[in-house]
Amino acid sequence: MIPALPPDTMMPEPWRVRSVVRESADVYTLGLESLSSPVPPFLPGQFNMLYAFGVGEVPISLSGDAADVSGFVHTIRAVGAVSTALSQAQPDSVLGLRGPFGCGWPLTEASGHDILIVAGGLGLAPLRPVIYHLLAHSEHFGRITILHGSRSPAEILFRSELAMWQTRPDVSVAITVDHADPTWHGHVGVVPALVERAVFDPPGTIAFVCGPEVMMRFSAAALLAAGVGANRIHVSMERNMKCAIGLCGHCQFGADFVCRDGPVLPYDRIAKRLAVPEL
Questions:
Q1: 8-state DSSP, 93
Q2: Of 55, 176, 183, 188, which sees the most CB atoms within 10 A?
Q3: What are φ and ψ of residue 263, in 5° steps?
Q4: What is the pLDDT of residues 191-241, one digit of tens each?
C-alpha cells in the first residue's frame, strides 16, 4: 500500500538540513528534518521531490531507514544545476520537499524468499532502505545476497555498512569495479558478472535491481539465464519526473508513468520497453 499523499502535493514544505556526509567526490548524503509538519511514512523505493530555492526541483530516492521517523535521508550525485545546489547545502540550511511519491519495493511479496540485491553505482542508495528492512526483519526472509558494482574503488558507496553487512551469517556481499587502482584487490568487471558468480536458489529468489538502464537490462538477462522468473525481478526506473503525481507526462514510459506507477516496476511488465534504446 502506498502511504497517503500530503494534502497539497504540489507545494514544497520547508525541511532543514541536519547532516551532510560526503560519500565520494560527487556524492553526498543529506539528513533532513521537517520544519512544518510530522514526518510522513515512506516505503523503501519511494522518492521525494527536493527543491533548491532559486534553482529548481528534482526527484531523489529515499536512502534512509523507513523505521526512522525523525526525518528523511537522501543520497545525491552532483550532476546538474539542481543536484549540485542540493549537494552543496550546509547543515541548518533549508530546502523544499514534496513527497513521498511512487511505489516501493514489494517487500510483503518477498517474505519467505531469498533476496538478491543487484545495485549499480548510485543504485545502491534506493536499495539501502530495503537492506535495512531485510536485516531488521531477517526472520521473515531467507538468504540475503548483495551485489554492488562501481566505476572505481573510490566511488563505492556506504563502505562501512557494506563491511558490516558482510559480517552477518545470513548476508553475502560481493563488490566489483569497472576500473581497479593499486589499492583494489577485489573483483573487476561489470555487475551482471557477479550475478553469474553468485550462489542462490533461482526458484526461491526475488531480485531487486537498480542502476543505469544498460546495467539493469544485462543484470535481468543474467538473472533470467540463471533461472529467476521475470515476475520475480523488480527494477527501479529513472525518468525526468516533474509533477510526481502522473499529470504532466514527462516521465511516461510506454503505458506507465514512472512517478506514479513506479519507480519500482516488475520486469515482466516492462521488459520489452526496457529493451528499446532511448525510449
A1: -
A2: 176
A3: -75, -15
A4: 999 999 999 999 999 999 999 999 999 999 999 999 999 999 999 999 888
Q: Could you tell me which of 222, 160, 164, 169 has the C-alpha nearest to residue 191?
A: 222
Delimiting residues of CATH 2.40.30.10 domain(s) in the chain:
13-101
DSSP H helices, the chain, are 81-87, 107-110, 124-136, 159-166, 191-197, 213-226, 258-261, 267-274
What's the average model confidence in pLDDT over 22-49?
A: 96
Reference 110, options 208, 43, 219; nearest CA is: 208
* Residues carrying CATH 3.40.50.80, the chain: 107-274
Calculate mean pLDDT across residues 111-125. 97
Judged on CB neighbours under 10 Å (0-12, 13-18, 19+), 57 is: buried
Residue 221 one-letter amino acid:
A
* Close Cβ partners of 167 (under 8 Å, ≥ 6 residues apart): none
pTM recorded for the entire structure: 0.94
Out of 3.30.70.270, 3.40.50.80, 1.10.3370.10, 1.10.10.60, the CATH code matching 107-274 is: 3.40.50.80
**% of the chain with per-residue pLDDT over 70:** 97
